[in-house]
Write a structure and sequence with these properties.
Structural class: mainly alpha
Number of strands: 5
Distance between the termini: 203 Å
Oligomer: single chain
Length: 273
Amino acid sequence: MPVFARRHRPTRRLATRQLKRAAWSTPSTPPPPPTLQLTCAPPQPPTAPPLPIPAPPARATAFTLVEILIVVVIIGILASIVIPQFTSASETARVNSTLSMLKSARAQLELYKVHHNEEYPALEQMWSSMLMPTDAEGVTDPNGRHGPYLQKAPMNIFTRSTEVAAFGQATSSHGWEYDEDTGRLAAVGFNEDTLSFPPPTTPTPQTPPDPPGVPPWVPNPTPPNTPTTAESTTHDQAPSAQSPAQYPPKTDAHHCDTPPSASGHHAVVTRTD
């Protein structure tokens, strides 16, 4: 490094410090105040006040005929969709209940058969044998070892009856059909193949047969000895051709010269030819 630079380095530092001090000591000039320029806008023409906006007319609170018809149509459509579902649900519940009762009764009949020497209860005593304790012979006994197999007699939902009848002899007043030989049990009015209750049928009245030896009844029979149209015309034209036996006898009545009776009337004499 040259000697001159070493010798004058403090002098340069001193000069720099003096310049900084001079700059700090010099007061700064404030910026000039802002100038305001006022401009006058041209006068605006007077404007008319805004017109008031008319309020919408008040709508009537009543429904129109078209709105009522639309609501009725919608309700009808919803009813046609919902009502069949409730109907099918009710029918399904009846079918399931009947199947459950049949299954339970058939299982208890098989259990009764096991306890009573492979014999089913008799038709006349079916529910009593199933609802009360029995002995080994099937006789109801409060102290019997077997049973009871059911708490109460099941009721047919379709006929609303608990009566039991033999197969082929059940009517609308019975609830169940039972075969005491095979233990077969079925619900009256219930088709297990289609799982449905057929609609009740109204029996048609039957005409009783005619007793033997009596001819069949003919409506509006023509009585005997009734003249036809031609015969009645002939009778009107030629009455003399008819038999005298068909006419009543001629009678002539005249007053006689007898004095009146006590009642004041004359006697009448009748002559027959």
